[in-house]
Every structure is written in C-alpha cells, then in structure tokens.
Amino acid sequence: MKRMLLLGGVTEALAIARTLGPQHIYSLAGIGRVPTDLQCQVRVGGYGGAEGLAQFIRDEGIDLLLDATHPYAAQISRNAATAARSSGIPCWALRRPAWQAQAGDDWREVSDWADLIEALKPFRRPLFTLGREPLQHLDEIPPEQFWTLRALDVYPGNERCEVIGARGPFLIDDERELFERRQIDVLISKNSGSTATEPKLDVARERGVPVLVLKRPVLPGVEREFGSVTEVLQVLRMQQFT
After folding, report:
1. Which end of the chain has the least Cβ crowding within 10 Å, N or C?
2. Are 123 and 106 in contact (CB under 8 A)?
3. What tens digit of pLDDT does each residue of 132-144 get?
4. Is a pLDDT exceeding 70 seen at residue 3?
5. Any idea which fold 4-97+217-238 has?
6. DSSP secondary structure string, 96-121?
C-alpha cells in the first residue's frame, strides 16, 4: 500500500488531505487551525531540518513526499527536496501561480526587509499583509508613519501600530471598508497567488494605492510540479495514492 507525506501550509493542501485515507500523513507546522475531521493521520510540528525529515520518511515507510507549503516557505521546501532525494523517494510540489499585475496596478517589487523599508519612506499609512514578520520591527516605525498589520491572530502592537487578527477568505467590500477607515496609502504583500487574499489587490487598484510586493524566493527543483489541486488529484489517482 502506497504511503504519502503531505506537507501542508496553503489552503489547497487541506483540499488534498480531505481525499486521503488513513495510511497517509498530513503534516502541519502548527501555525493556524489544525483540522480534526480528516481520515488521514495529522502530524503537527517540525522535523529538525532535512536530516530529521529524511529519518521520518524512512521510519514511516513514505513512498511520496508532496510539498504543499506556502510559496515563501523556502527553507521548508529546500528541506523537503533534500530529504526526499536522500531517502530515494520522489518529491512533488503544489506551487500556486503568482499573481500578475493588471492594467491600473502600481506594483513595486522589493527583495527584502531593508529594501521594503526604503521603499516605504514616502508613505504614512501602510497596511502590512506579510504575516508576523513586521512584529519584530515595531520599535523601528518612523514617527510620521502609523502601521496596520494583519495576521492570522491578534498580537500586541504599540502606539504607532495596530495588529488585526483575521483569516481569509476576505470579501472585497470588507477590504474597501478597511482601506477607507484606515486611510491606507500603500499595501505591502507577498505574492502568494491565493484567491482568498486577492481582493486587497483589487481595492488597491481601485483606489490607486501602490503595492510593495515582496519578491518570491527561488524554490528547489522537484520531480513533478503542479499549479492546482485538480492537477494533483488527477495524478494521485493515477498513481493509486487516493
């Protein structure tokens, strides 16, 4: 009986996990909600790098590693590819296509935090949608700026920053209200490619608000790469994993 280890991290991973039987393992880092209604096994937590993951693969008799982590979780993807290779099993990856700028968009790509802060200097009311990373920099906020951070959960802010805990999918009318109420003059975003969070880009386009887009990391090559859940499930069925 074939056995798969599914590394989760994006919404699509749960859709795949819902098709898996009890011999398969759905692995989560532990950030966010852990599903309790799946037939497959659920594992929460890390592995201790590529070596630890490779040992787990060997101990559990895994035949296929499917990387469905976030497109910005580059280290996890590198560990997955390395562990699969050293264990002699294939590594596949579900990788969302990136968003593409449309007519009317003002997107400005930034490569790292220092580049982002430099590009942010002309603005006063940024909306950060990068997850938790900006929380490490709250003491660096210039006096002329007020930051709004949106993350999965609520975290303490300060007098120059408010943190909003919210989970997608987000509705465009709610995003319009947020931009208006906070008087957002620049949006900071990863290019995650998720339809659940795309409405913020539509509102930025409507309002003529620039978007500082954090450049996608380079991910390792794998045996097979997929752009949608439909593609993945079709091949998994053909290979008798579902």
Report:
1. N
2. no
3. 889 999 999 999 9
4. yes
5. Rossmann fold (3.40.50)
6. PPPP---TT--EEEE-SHHHHHHHHT
